[in-house]
Design goal:
transmembrane helix, DUF2231 domain-containing protein, about 160 residues, elongated, DUF2231_TM, transmembrane, mainly alpha, membrane, 7 helices
Length: about 160
């Protein structure tokens, strides 16, 4: 069975892979093997990030249906940071490809700065995604609308 929305099932892969790729990139300063690990994790994280982004429209429609149009500000911020994350990690991967054989120190510094920025943007993307799911003004933490928290018993009593 495919979860609805699919975005919620996919999004954890790029978060985990890109985060571990950033850590591996920093560890590559210590041991070069971590550079290979970083490239692998960042590549798979980027691909799954594109998949998460492409499934975001379905999740957006679902969120607006469940929580109403009040969710739009959080959706816009979430999408902004998601796109920024993809752009940053595309630049990281491009630098890795361009300087695959020999990398000047300035490129290593740029990679680390981009990875730090990407770590920030993916954190913000997750923050706003979590805000929509768990802390929306239109929902309590159980996913029920606050306006309709009336129990079935109370509802039935009023109609008997």
């Amino acid at each position: 069975m495919i979860p609805e929305p699919l975005h919620a099932a996919i999004v954890h892969f790029p978060v985990a892979l890109l985060t571990m790729g950033v850590i591996a990139q920093f560890l590559s300063l210590w041991k070069n093997i971590f550079n290979t690990i970083a490239i692998f994790m960042l590549s798979i994280g980027f691909i799954t990030g594109i998949a998460a982004y492409l499934t975001g429209d379905g999740a957006e429609d679902f969120a607006e249906h469940v929580q109403g149009k009040d969710i739009n500000m959080l959706l816009e911020r979430h999408e902004f940071f998601a796109v920024a994350t993809l752009i940053i990690f595309a630049a990281v991967l491009a630098l890795h490809l361009i300087f695959l054989r020999r990398r000047p120190a300035i490129v290593t510094l740029l990679l680390l700065l981009l990875c730090a920025g990407g770590g920030f943007t993916i954190t913000m993307t997750g923050h706003y995604g979590g805000e929509m799911v768990y802390h929306s003004d239109s929902q309590d933490n159980t996913g029920n609308n606050e306006d309709s928290n009336e129990s079935e018993e109370d509802h039935d009593k009023g109609h008997n």
